[in-house]
Specification:
The protein is flat. It has 19 helices and 10 strands. Among the domains are: 73 residues, no CATH class; 124 residues, Endonuclease, Chain A (3-Layer(aba) Sandwich). The structure holds zinc ion. The site of zinc ion (ZN) has 7 residues, from loops.
């Protein structure tokens, strides 16, 4: 089964095995089958022409017969399959309609989702303008969700309390099931902050700040065993809730913004680049904060490469690699699974190498600077870079 072709056209010229007559068009053959042979078209097709796949794209059963020229459509008449063929929310539906492969269908799917989301956001903006309680009335964790239908506030609060308990339980179960996968969703995990553009050190500070603030010990010390524990638990629940509270649209929108705003360069790298620039301000240099990013397209590998610092005058490239994102070999072994990139360290290194090879093949020299080296000894790193550009 594949979606490459909707109809399985007949090859012409076609020789009728009954009479050995040659037909140059499907139309001629069709008239001949009706008038001369007086045969049913699908019967003739099955017996003498059916040399290609006639199966339904979705169920693999026999497709619907169209004509001698077109043969079978790769969709049967079963209601389930017909509905699937119209479904724009399924990858298969898109594969079928656009007659494309899975990868491409997934891309279409994303584009379509994005478009629908934008439309929904527009509608919601309008509804919010008309009704300030619009969001609350749609949120099962808000009293307004229930009182709009006439429920008392007391009863609504009871339901919400139960729901919160259930959510908290569900969340802790989910996290425990795959801690690495969910790491970036929790502000107590380093991945959460790294994903939002913080450096490793800042991320660690953030976490210890939260841990101090939220520490159970502090609560117990302040309020005693029972009350302290209760307060601490409530706080945890509320914390989880703020993440769970968002509507699906908001979540998608937040993720989208993250994708688009995530500029992919670390702030600390720019400090080094400005310092280098001061020494070479006559050169034709590019880096993010000076004049935007440098992106090149590798046709062969179909990849876009972003270069951190390029000096077109001396034909030099400096890559500033964050230890976490690029899996510094001093810290990670090749089998380390990167929790956000969904790649192993080895695969990340391969990608990085391909990127450097691409620009080297164009006559550029390259230098890689590791964030941790720079943090440990900024002056030495700067000198190394200057030396590199002076070579
Ligand atoms: Zn089917």
């Amino acid at each position: 089964m594949n979606a490459a072709k909707r109809y399985k056209d007949i090859d012409t010229p076609f020789t009728c095995p009954i009479s050995n007559r040659i037909f140059n068009s499907a139309k001629g053959l069709s008239v001949y089958v009706t008038k001369t042979l007086k045969m049913d078209h699908s019967e003739y097709y099955d017996k003498y022409v059916n040399h290609r796949d006639a199966s339904c794209f979705f169920c693999g059963g026999k497709g619907k017969f169209i004509s001698i020229g077109k043969g079978y459509r790769n969709l049967c008449e079963d209601e389930v399959c017909v509905i699937k063929s119209f479904n724009s929310h399924s990858i298969e539906g898109i594969m079928y309609r656009k007659m494309c492969g899975r990868k491409e269908a997934e891309r279409f799917f994303d584009i379509e989702n994005e478009r629908q989301l934008k439309e929904r956001m527009k509608t919601f903006e309008k509804l919010r303008g008309e009704n300030p309680d619009f969001d609350k009335q749609r949120n099962p964790l808000c009293v307004e969700f229930y009182t709009k239908d006439g429920m008392t506030e007391k009863k609504a609060n009871e339901i919400i309390r139960e729901l919160r308990k259930k959510n908290a339980k569900k969340y802790s179960k989910t996290i425990k099931s795959d801690p690495e996968k969910y790491a970036s969703k929790f502000p107590t995990k380093i991945e959460y902050w790294l994903k939002r553009g913080y450096s490793e050190k800042e991320a660690k500070d953030k976490i210890s700040e939260i841990q101090n603030r939220f520490s159970l010990d502090i609560c117990i010390e302040k309020y005693g065993d029972v009350k302290g524990l209760k307060i601490w638990e409530d706080r945890q629940n509320r914390w989880i809730e703020t993440l769970d509270n968002k509507t699906e649209e908001e979540k998608i929108e937040i993720n989208r913004k993250k994708l688009f705003n995530q500029s992919g360069y670390s702030k600390i790298s720019q400090k080094l680049f400005w310092d280098i620039f001061e020494n070479f301000n006559q050169n034709n240099i590019k880096f993010e904060e000076l004049n935007g990013e440098i992106i090149r397209y590798d046709k062969k590998n179909k990849s876009h490469y972003r270069y951190d610092f390029v000096d077109f005058t001396t034909k030099s490239v400096i890559e500033f690699n964050g230890d976490f994102w690029h899996c510094n070999p001093n810290e990670y072994n090749e089998n380390h699974q990167h929790s956000i990139m969904n790649l192993t360290a080895k695969e990340i290194w391969q990608k990085d190498r391909m990127k450097l090879d691409w620009i080297r093949n164009r006559g550029y020299d390259t230098l890689v600077v590791w964030e941790s080296d720079y943090r440990k000894n900024p002056k030495q790193t700067l000198e190394k870079c200057i030396e590199f550009l002076n070579k």
